[in-house]
Amino acid sequence: MTKNTVMPCAADFESWTQEDEDKALEAAAEQMKVKHLIKDGSVWFLAPHGHIYKLPLALSIDDFARLSDLQSDTEQIQALKDMLTSFAGKDAVRQLAKEPVMVPMNILTDYGEIISKMQGADLGKSSASASSYAANMATE
Questions:
Q1: What's the CA gap between 90 and 69, in Å, rounded?
Q2: Which domain of life is it from (predicted)?
Q3: Which end of the chain has the least Cβ crowding within 10 Å, N or C?
Q4: Residue 27: how many other CB atoms lie within 10 Å
């Protein structure tokens, strides 16, 4: 794409390739990634523009069921906003509402993975123990 213009010209559209598309999407996705850490019984998320969000590590059965039963992205984001209101306050929810939609989706994805890993750890399981169990069963 022409680097000196803000708006693309017709030639930019004509020369746009699938490779250009893939690179652009990859770069955009990279800009929406969140980082997280686990500290003091909470999962803390750092959004791309420096905002920090806090969710509980110990998820209640009701919250777990609510998050598990959600079908649409809108329902998932609303559940995240409800949890943030409970655990981080209304200011965090107002700030989250200003984030690009991929930021809360990435928070939800990472949060779900963390909760799943924690459930495995609480039950004495890990991906290593699960694979070693499968290997042992295959040899018996």
A1: 24
A2: Bacteria
A3: C
A4: 9
Contact 84, 92 (CB under 8 A): yes
Paired strand residues for 54: 44
> Long-range contacts: 61-65, Cβ < 8 Å, 24+?
64/115
- ∠ CA 64-30-121, rounded to 5°: 35
pLDDT band of residue 3 (cuts 50, 70, 90) is low
Rg, the chain, Cα only: 20
Side-chain half-sphere exposure of 103, counting CA atoms within 13 A: 18
Residues 6+ apart with CB under 8 A from 67: 59, 76, 79, 108, 112
Q: Check if the beta carbon of residue 63 is closer than 8 Å to that of residue 83.
A: yes
